[in-house]
Design brief:
- The protein is of the alpha+beta class and about 160 residues long.
- It folds into two domains: about 1-75, 2-Layer Sandwich (Alpha-Beta Plaits), CATH 3.30.70.260; about 80-150, ACT-like. Chain A, domain 2 (Alpha-Beta Plaits).
- The chain has four helices and nine strands.
- The protein has helices spanning about 15-25, 55-65, 100-105, 130-140, and strands at about 1-10, 30-35, 45-50, 70-75, 80-90, 110-115, 120-125, 145-150, 150-155.
- Strands 5, 6, 7, 8 and 9 form a five-stranded antiparallel beta sheet that branches. Strands 2-3-1-4 form a four-stranded antiparallel beta sheet, covered by helices on one side.
């Protein structure tokens, strides 16, 4: 079972290490982790995705709430959450595959952000399943290099973390 957890933390040295260390000590694997400053520079928001049983997920949420510098932890529900990822993907620029790459990029609403005689770098944003589908389409063409941000998510509607 895939879970997305939002963690609102103080923007201080060592907080990320404590959170990652908790997962390591408990034997949990983080599928993706995105961290960035919030609208208030004193705080950062971590979006953590993981897979596992509901009981294990509840245990990790409980442990996260106990950590120093953690202000709030929230499980984000499927269907009530907006999720996005960013993918940068480099493929070879070959005459025989160029049209296919450009067509797939257009279908997935991506952008070619770097074009040279030997390669193209493509940017795609969207839900994690869309990102994976684009990777799957590009795999047979030959991916040279790629970087993926991991999930960033917010609850839909007026629901917010750490309301002021």
């Amino acid at each position: 079972m895939r879970s997305v957890i939002a963690v609102y933390v103080e923007n201080k040295f060592g907080v990320l290490t404590r959170v990652a260390g908790l997962f390591m000590r408990k034997g949990f694997n983080i599928d993706s982790l995105a961290v960035g400053e919030t609208e208030d520079p004193q705080y950062s928001r971590m979006t953590i995705t993981l897979r596992g049983e509901e009981s294990a997920r509840e245990q990790i949420i409980h442990q996260l709430k106990k950590l120093h510098n953690v202000k709030e932890v929230k499980l984000l529900s499927d269907g009530e959450t907006v999720e996005r990822e960013l993918l940068l993907l480099k493929v070879r620029n070959l005459p025989k595959t160029r049209t296919e790459v450009m067509a797939a990029t257009d279908v997935y609403r991506g952008k070619i952000i770097d074009y040279s005689t030997d390669s193209m770098v493509i940017e795609v944003t969207g839900e994690p399943l869309k990102i994976q589908a684009f990777i799957d389409v590009m795999q047979p063409i030959g991916i040279m290099e790629m970087g993926r941000t991991g999930t960033v998510a917010l609850a839909r509607g007026a629901d917010v973390l750490q309301e002021k």
